[in-house]
Amino acid sequence: MTLAIAVGFLAAVGTWLIVRGGAVRLILGFILLGHAANLVIIAAGGTFRREAPLVNDQLLAQNAADPLPQAFVLTAIVITFGVTVYLLSLVARTAKQSSKTEDETIGHIEGQEEASS
Amino acid sequence: MNIDVTFLSTWVLPAVFLGPLIAAVITFVLGAGAITRYIGLLVPLGVFVVAVLLVLTTMDGQVVVSQIAGWPGGVSIAFVGDLLSALMLGVSALLVFTSMVFAFAAGLGIERWFVPTVLIMTAGVYGAYVTADLFNLFVMIEVALLPSYILMSRRGTLTSLRAARLYLIVNLTASTLFLAGLGAVYGVTGTVNMAALAGLGVLPVVGIATGVIVIALMLKAALVPTHSWLPATYPYTSPAITALFSGLLTKIGVYALVRIISLIYEPGQLVTVIVVVACVASMVIGVLGALGEGTIRGVLTFHMVSQVGYILVGVVLAGAVGLAAVVFYLIHHTIVKTSLFLTGGTVEHEEGTGIIRRLGGLARAHPIASFAFLLAALSLIGIPPFSGFWAKLGVLNAAVDAGSVVVFVVALVVSVGTLGSMLKLGSGVFWGSPKGARDEEDEETPSDVTVGAETVGATGLAIDVATEVEAPPVTKWRPLLVFPGLALALVSLGIGLYPEWLLALADTAGESLADPVAYVSAVLGSGPS
């Protein structure tokens, strides 16, 4: 239940931040959404089983934590981290570029003004 | 077939993913140069050969499996080559090769990053085609996407950076959804092995969990209502890269949808109904949107939305017949669309602009490129004797089989729209009055997507010099730019003239998708593998 509330809260705040617009809010929003997705995966493994698996031969299977979701989440965190860093650098580059050529008008791609970042 | 299956499964399947990755490292170390360019061409050729071998092995419905690290089936992450995977590998390798030739002719080869990033991207795509594990599919998609972010933003102009940002945000959203769906699937079934999930979609809880993944993939495949990012991003990079993206990245979404829906769901479930509705809407909205675009690649990318609808509508219609139509359409579309993008890219590179209003009458000076465009456009519309005719016939056939009047009528009517958008390109760019006879005023259009604007980026990336030069009207276009598009158009014509073999392959692939017993038993290791 705690996890469900946490996922709901993270997803709600993340979505709200993304929809509000502005580069930094957008990135923070995606970080929170990513956390929500990761918590869903952790929850899928069943958090009632807490013992470290594989290291202890005497451990009963029903007490061992499921290592697979943890591996999933680790992979996902690394990927999300990389993408977020790239998104940050992209936003920074865009802000730098648009301050250089302020009068350029772009009709096609609606993006919020970079001034908020 | 007398090909050693053990050899294929042990060495060849993992090599499809690892080979391009290793080649990427080598080319990165070597830097831009002749050897790097040769490697960039040889790798897709090698994958093509592998794909042909795989097709020959799997054309009787056999499934080649590689259980990674020798874990037993169901526990391991499996790489699987069935007929669909093999065909997708082959057609992807073909288009990567032609796009590479085009890219080098356009001068992208002098960028240090170009060949390695494309190789990594293709590694992810090939990997996605052969994996039998949902989480592995997620990783493969990310492997393909990360280099694409770099390729998207490589020009460094404000327009391309904004397009890249939008592109990244859309894909990040899709990936997050995919991940959440994965968690849900694992939570309710305890596995993410696609074979182990086969048929479980009938259980509502699994159906909904997988539905989250389906929605994420629909976003990646740019189906209506999540299509609007596609025409807002793809035209804002170099033409060769747009061609690669259209042939590879949206196609992973399409492929994964085909695989997951056919494997996990039964026809008639709520999710499949939603997919049909989205497909029909895509067919209509995509073709209407294409008519409103003002640049060559704008028309072509918006039109992709419509074509994705055509491809996927068969997934949920009429079982094996529908799936066979899907496989055939997928292959046809990849070839023809890439051909059109490359020919359109030739115009942009040589004339310095892709804005239809500023072009016209190019057919007189450049008959070969115009011929290539004509062939591909006719094929896209679906006129015999091109591959597009057989592809559309397959879709109509599936609609009749399923008794779906709506799909049948929409598929027919939308073809008229396709004709309209191809006419717009044809009369605006290749035929019709030359640009001199039209309005000459040089006002700035907001959606200016000229290749000529490809100035040196802030990072100081070396950029194609040839496009900088204002090309005088009568210069001959570089043959290496024209040739790839023409070659692919001729492939489409060839398939259209001799469709039997591909139709037979598509039928087999459709049957094994509709009834995935061989796939499941091979992956889970319970049957002969």
What portion of residues of chain B is helical? 55-70%
Largest sheet of chain B: 2 strands, antiparallel
Number of helices of chain A: 3
Question: How many domains is the backbone of chain B divided into?
Answer: 1
* Average of pLDDT of chain A: 80
> Helix share of residues of chain A?
55-70%
Question: Please, how many helices of chain B?
Answer: 18
Residue stretches of chain B low in confidence (pLDDT < 50, at least 5 long) are: 437-472
Distance between the terminal alpha carbons of chain B, to the nearest Å? 15 Å
Q: How large, in whole angstroms, is the Cα Rg of chain A?
A: 20 Å
Most residues in contact: chain pair: A-B, 39 and 38 residues
Record field, number of beta strands of chain A: 0
Structural class of chain B: mainly alpha
Strand-residue proportion of chain B: under 5%
Major β-sheet strand ordering of chain B: 1-2
The Cα radius of gyration of chain B reads 22 Å
Taking the sheet with the most strands of chain A, its summary is: none
**DSSP strand count of chain B:** 2
Bulk shape of chain B: globular
Order of helices and strands of chain A: HHH
Ends distance of chain A: 36 Å
Could you give a short description of this structure?
Chain A has helices spanning 2-20, 23-44, 67-100. Chain A is mainly α.
